[in-house]
Amino acid sequence: MRCExxxxxxxKLKTNKxxxxxxxxxxxxxxxxxxxxxxxxxxxxxxxxxxxxxxxNDREIGIVVVExxxxxNLEQHEKQLIEASVDPVYIPVSTKS
Length: 97
Hints:
Elements: E1 4-10, E2 15-25, H1 27-35, E3 41-43, H2 48-56, E4 61-67, H3 68-72, H4 76-84, E5 89-93
Parallel strand pairs: 2-3, 2-4, 4-5
Antiparallel strand pairs: 1-2
């Protein structure tokens, strides 16, 4: 099962782009996404900013679900770069209930 999302990123030109969803986080965080059929999952290493930059270099990925703990542990300037990104869009998700 491949998860792709189609969205219009330039309404003026009516340009459509098919993008993939990626997930990055701890093993406990990503396993649920894997069970749901998401294939682009990455367990975060001890250098999460490098992991996030590597995902950014994959032009097919348009949405990245990030475990909130990873975002909290980034340096302030790193966090600002990730939050300002629009391609891909990084979405922090909390594991707290």
